[in-house]
């Protein structure tokens, strides 16, 4: 599994796509998957790229679900060839809104758990990837 993180609009998805043959991957948008579970993802013997993972986490929290256990169950069961792409949302000013604070905290903790399990972690800035694990 690979985890790719970076700021908003830093070229994370393009960075990932440039590393794979266009017929070798399937891209899923976390914002679209948010209304359902991760079980909707089908591998079709391709690398699965889960973009906007932070959006999936936010919506699952909003729905009162438990994204921490959902993603860990998902990682335990499937996808050796999985790339998770997420914005870094924990930097900057702490939001006044309680939900936004909870979302940032929980997303950060989920990314820490994912990074521990990942074979590779890359941070992308200005479209340039820097391997940090």
UniProtKB/TrEMBL annotation:
Keyword Nucleotidyltransferase attached: yes
Entry keywords, A to Z: ATP-binding, Cobalamin biosynthesis, GTP-binding, Kinase, Nucleotide-binding, Nucleotidyltransferase, Transferase
EC category: transferase
Pathway(s) the chain acts in: Cofactor biosynthesis; adenosylcobalamin biosynthesis; adenosylcobalamin from cob(II)yrinate a,c-diamide: step 6/7; Cofactor biosynthesis; adenosylcobalamin biosynthesis; adenosylcobalamin from cob(II)yrinate a,c-diamide: step 5/7
Pfam families: CobU
UniProt-listed GO biological process terms: cobalamin biosynthetic process
Entry EC no(s): 2.7.1.156, 2.7.7.62
Reactions performed catalytically: adenosylcob(III)inamide + ATP = adenosylcob(III)inamide phosphate + ADP + H(+); adenosylcob(III)inamide phosphate + GTP + H(+) = adenosylcob(III)inamide-GDP + diphosphate; adenosylcob(III)inamide + GTP = adenosylcob(III)inamide phosphate + GDP + H(+)
GO molecular function: adenosylcobinamide kinase activity; ATP binding; cobinamide phosphate guanylyltransferase activity; GTP binding
Sequence similarity: Belongs to the CobU/CobP family.
Function: Catalyzes ATP-dependent phosphorylation of adenosylcobinamide and addition of GMP to adenosylcobinamide phosphate.
Record protein name field: Adenosylcobinamide kinase
């Amino acid at each position: 599994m690979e985890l790719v993180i970076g700021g908003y609009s830093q070229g994370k998805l393009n960075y990932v796509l440039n590393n794979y043959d266009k017929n070798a991957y399937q891209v899923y948008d976390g914002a679209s998957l948010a209304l359902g579970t991760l079980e909707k993802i089908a591998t079709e013997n391709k690398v699965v790229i889960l973009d906007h993972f932070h959006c999936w986490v936010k919506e699952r929290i909003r729905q009162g679900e438990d994204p921490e256990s959902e993603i860990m169950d998902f990682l335990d069961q499937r996808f050796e060839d999985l790339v998770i792409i997420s914005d870094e949302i924990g930097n900057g000013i702490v939001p006044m809104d309680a939900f936004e604070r909870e979302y940032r905290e929980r997303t950060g903790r989920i990314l820490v758990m994912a990074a521990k399990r990942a074979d590779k972690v890359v941070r992308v800035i200005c479209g340039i990837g820097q391997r940090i694990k």
